[in-house]
Each structure stands twice: as structure tokens, then as C-alpha cells.
Amino acid sequence: MASNFDVIIIGAGIIGAATALELARSGNRVLVLDKLPAAGYGSTSNSCAIIRTYYSTLDGTALAYEGYHYWRDWAQYLGCEDESGHAEFIQCGTLTMKVEQNNGLQTAISMADELGLPFEELDTAAVAARIPAANMGVFHPAKRPDDAGFAQSNGSDIEGAVFWPHSGYISDPQLATHNLQRAAESHGAQFQFNTTVTEILSEQGRVSGVRTQTDEHIEAPVVINIAGPHSAKINALAGVAESMNIKTRALRHEVPHVPAPAGFTASNNAPVTSDSDIETYSRPASGDQVLIGSEDPACDESHYVDPDNYDQELSEQARVQAMRLAQRFTELEIPNRIGGVVDLYDVSDDWIPIYDKTDLDGFYVAIGTSGNQFKNAPVVGRLMARLIEACEAGQDHDSDPVSYHLEYLDRDIDIGFYSRNREINRDSSFSVLG
Questions:
Q1: Could you read off the pLDDT of 266-293 as tens digits, one per residue?
Q2: What is the DSSP string of 362-424?
Q3: Is 137 helix (H, G, I), strand (E, B) or coil?
Q4: Measured between alpha carbons, how far is 169 from 278 in angstroms, rounded to an integer?
């Protein structure tokens, strides 16, 4: 293998692989390095891989709706076959509850109207008709099972919900990443696994390459940190962490898997749910299971960890999340032994990602993706390619932010929205909702 490239990408997760594809398509000699044995083998592999078209900000919503179109036309976007087959987009829609905490989704509805996104408003009766034996009561604030009032409604019902039809989930997130790897390789990109970056090399204020655990020195004038939960460690190696106003940390999360209620399974095309009253989301999965994620309520302790040393076993938190969902899904059965996964989110201070250059010339970041950017990976790949092209051509992104044209929406967005130097965005949900 050559020892010099145009671009080195650190991280072969879904966003790293998508960025490799777009840069390789532009004619760059790209090398992707990952410490694990395969693409998408880290936190990507345990992603719930939900595709949805609503966020708490207009820019986030626009990017998500743009990303939907890539997943809808996945094979066309890839432009090549994969010996393992293609990942499938299950377009089952998302049912998002209208509650006081999200202002009855009025902001999301307003942004959807502005962007021309399809949605359907449902009253409480219509929501109950879609969830078997549903309890439409209000349980907020979210509680732990040993708290007073757990599973007791306050006597009122939720306002209803919004159904987002251009939503669903990806059948296999690791396979989707492998698809991107094969597509990138078809344009000349190379992937090197079981490789840990131990040093970011620089000369006269510009990145010059990396050094690995085997003392291999690989040269490139552009290096991109897309290392997911390890992003903060890579930034520290590059010496850019302290100069960034927005930082990232690795947050431990659990996603339990339990049997789905009758009639609310993947085979019934059951929707994804997002319920900010009980601060829980869910999606159907194969084997008539339902996956249960947390929207990080205040009553739950946040576990920020060393990504190289954390507890990977399910805890009592898995049962807590299942019990919260059972408040709404009254027929949900919780087995004595709960299955599921434990993995990490790469979380920024405001849960909005950082897609940016840094104070080290040639060193770029696509980080802080916080469990909510899987859906945006293909369009983020193109956005990062556009950012790098403009910066390397001399545009000062800090003072003159690069714009990116959303092809399907026919709308320009300011990549500066995702700046490392922004102030904390108070419009964010400060949760996995983004």
C-alpha cells in the first residue's frame, strides 16, 4: 500500500465511509483507518438506524429530509453492487407524540411547512387506534420505577401525535456501512483495519499525516477526524481540543430489546415511536422484537466514559426503559432476562454535530454525532467533501462560511451552523432527538 494519500479519514463508521465515498468520487486518493476489524463495527453497528425527518432546528430538519432521499434510492446512490447485498430501508413512518414538553410539536410542524415536508396530525383517538391497548395518559415528568407516582397518569391525556411518513429504519446498519465501503473502493478508496492512530503529524502549522501503533507513518495533507466516541481523543492528539468552543464526550447508552406487543411488530409495519412524555423512543425489529431507546430524562444519570474502558453489560437501566414504554404500551411484556445492546454516543455540548475545519490547517472534523446522525450520513459525506474542497481552495470558513446546496430540497444551508466555535444552540433538544 502507498504511504501517501490526498486524504486520511480516521474512523470507518457510517459517516466516515460516506465521506470516503464522496471524496473518492471527486478524484482524491483516500485512506480510511479504523482500530476495529471492519467498517461499521463500532458504535454504528449498534445504532437503532432510525431515519426520520424532524429535528429541533430548521437546519437539522432540512439535512434530515435531504438524507431521506439517499436512503430511499440507496442502490442508485451507491452506484455499485455489494457481494453481501444492500441494506434495506423499512419505510414504516414515525409516530411522534404531541406533549407539553415539545409544545405540541408546533415548532416541528412549522419547520415542516416551511420546507414542504409531508406529515399527518392525529388526535388522541387516532393515536390510540395505532397502538395496541394504548394508555394515552400523561405521565410526565419521566420517573424511575421506585419514584412516587411512577406509571400513574396525572388524569389528562396527551394532545395527539404527528405521523411522519418519510421515516423508518435501516435493516442492518453495519451492512449499510459495508455498502458505502464497497462503493468508495470502487472509486479507488482504501480501507485499513486493526489500525490505531497514535499521533497526528504536522509541519509548520499544517497536518502532514498520521502515525499508527505499528510506527507506520502515512502522509496526507488532509486528515479528517470521524472517530465517533473516540473523537475527543483524536482531537487531543491533534492539539485542537482546547481551542474548540464546542467539545465532545463519549456517553454510554443502553437499548433493550423485548417482545413487541401483538399487532405492533415489523411484520405489521408498525411505526417508529418518539414519546417525550415518557422520554422513550422505540422501533420494531426482526423476530417480533421492539428496541427501546431513552431520550435522556433528568431522573436518569448520564454516564460519560472512557471509550476504551466502559461497562458493556446491560444494567437495571434496560428494565427501566422497558417499564417506561409499558406505561404507553400496556400489553408490553418484559421478560426476566432482557436482551439488548450497550454502546456509546459521541455527544457534543448541545447534541448538535460539529462538521468543520479546525485551527490546525488540513485537519477537519465530523464529530459529535450523538446517536442522531446515522440518517444523515450520505448527505454529510457530500457536505464534508464540499467543505474540504472550499477550504483547501483558500476559503476562510471561519469568517466566510461555506454553503452547501441541498439537491432534493433545492435549498442552500450554511455549514457554519455546525461550527466548532458556535455558541451552544439553545434551540436544541439537548437529547438524542437532536
A1: 999 999 999 999 999 999 999 999 999 9
A2: TEEEEE-BTTT-GGGHHHHHHHHHHHHHHHHTT--TTTSPPEEEETTTTEEEEGGGG-TTPPP
A3: strand
A4: 21
Mean predicted lDDT score pLDDT of the chain: 96
3-state secondary structure string across 296-347: CCCCCCCCECECCECCCCCCHHHHHHHHHHHHHECCCCCCCCCEEEEEEEEE
Residue type, 285: A
Please give the DSSP secondary-structure letter assigned to residue 226. -
Ramachandran assignment for 221, one of left (phi > 0), alpha (psi -120 to 50 degrees), beta (any other): alpha
Rounded Cα gap, residues 118 and 85, in angstroms = 30
Question: Quick one: which of 310, 176, 171 has its CA closest to 254?
Answer: 310
- 97: cell is 407524540
Q: pLDDT for 110-119, tens place per residue?
A: 999 999 999 9
For the chain, counts of helices (H) and of strands (E): 9, 22
CA neighbours within 13 Å on the CB side: how many for 353? 35
If DSSP codes are grouped into helix, strand and coil, which group holds residue 249?
A: strand
CA distance 396 to 17: 26
Under a CB-based contact definition with an 8 Å cutoff, are residues 54 and 61 in contact? yes
pLDDT digits (tens, 9 = 90+) for 157-211: 999 999 999 999 999 999 999 999 999 999 999 999 999 999 999 999 999 999 9
